[in-house]
From TrEMBL:
GO terms for molecular function: aspartic-type endopeptidase activity. Residues 1-23 form the signal peptide. Its main location: secreted. It comes from Aquilegia coerulea. The keyword Secreted applies. This is Peptidase A1 domain-containing protein.
Amino acid sequence: MASSSFHFILFSTLFFSLSFSNAQPSFRPRALVLPVSKDASTLQYLTRINQRTPLVSVNVVVDLGGQFLWVDCDQGYVSSSYIPARCNSAQCSLAGADGCGTCNAPARPGCNNNTCGLLPDNTVTRTATSGELTQDVLSLQSTNGRNPGPVVSIPRYLFTCAATFLLDGLANGAKGMAGLGRARIGLPSQFAAAFSFNRKFAICLSSSTSANGVIFFGNEPYVMQPNIDISTSLIYTPLLINPVSTASAYSQGDRSTEYFIGVKSIKVNEKAISLNSTLLTIQSDDGYGGTKISTVNPYTVLESSIYNALTQAFVREASYLPRVQSVAPFGFCFDSTNVGSTRVGPAVPSIDLVLQSESVYWRIFGANSMVQVRDNVLCLGFVDGGLNPRTSIVIGGHQLEDNLLQFDLATSRLGFSSSLLFRQTTCSNFNFTSNV
Ligand SMILES: *[C@@H]1O[C@H](CO)[C@@H](O)[C@H](O)[C@H]1NC(C)=O
Ligand SMILES: *[C@@H]1O[C@H](CO)[C@@H](O)[C@H](O)[C@H]1NC(C)=O
Ligand SMILES: *[C@@H]1O[C@H](CO)[C@@H](O)[C@H](O)[C@H]1NC(C)=O
């Protein structure tokens, strides 16, 4: 009796492992998922990818508008599946990498002859360098939109090597940056091509440094506990293309891979503030102006005249709040002792980014407009970007947290949820317990 059940267990284990390994190559995910953490000291958002053979887990900074994945190959890159992109190969042309590089040192990852290269860009410090285009195994979890599912691999994922110094300014432990921008070798496009799903992805950044947010690649649903599919109630606005690259280094004629939207006006407590409309428009000749979304800026940065107009209107509408000495990088701070609290954060005037029509706006509530810098001190979480910045409005991380944003590259459309706090959930409520 005992012996026959033992055989049965052995047999069934064998059966399942065989069917699993047979099923694995034909399993085609409809979406993928990555966790995102927030680094408490830099306020950067980090994700973790598994790469190389044998697989190593690598922390990289999430760069929403970045062109591609780049990692430090100089220190500790060991992999038997590393394949540099040979000059004039299909990989070089897909990546838009011309030229042919050599390396005057013993061959190793990041240093090979006859390879094409790109310019990995640290968009935090705005430093770019040259690096070899290459391919290696990358693996991550699939999802049904509710839980992570089976792990899937891309055998030849294209990325760029960088020298170790390019990590300066990134969060402790980060080994590179993951670019989710519009480039053909950005994460969204490569994942969509590898598994034949739609070129779209969604980010949901957690406001907590101790609970993970989430990035979904591919199709909906995007479900947060308790069982709320955020994808069914998004507001949509066109994504705009800046014809002039916003990267730290680029070739003439390159377009920006960042995501721009068309903010037409700004309202405080539903009253429009007066703005120079030229600044709100992307200038076709030099690419100045306009509004982009960024995960490398911790707070929204506004061109000075926009900053002044917004902060003056806010102070006027919030005249009941006692001002206190400001705390850098903010210019306007308040005593929060008597500030009421609501489901969507401190009770303060709403700030609306009005989009393609008066009825389509991104409303920013207290949880996203205000920053608690210390007990009883609440600051307006916007930063003065000076005169003549490259982009007039850069919507930063604090304003994105606990909002889900879906970027659809094929239809060039942004879907945004507004604050999930209204729906009694947050971006840290994705169920990361695998269902396999
Ligand atoms: C590249 O070629 C040069 C000249 O032939 C050689 O000296 C150098 O060692 C090679 N580098 C690598 C990484 O193979
Ligand atoms: C509006 O901004 C543009 C671009 O910076 C500038 O050239 C123009 O003088 C500004 N207009 C006004 C009325 O300030
Ligand atoms: C999270 O998912 C796991 C796996 O499907 C499930 O067992 C668990 O009940 C879920 N947790 C919650 C809080 O729903």
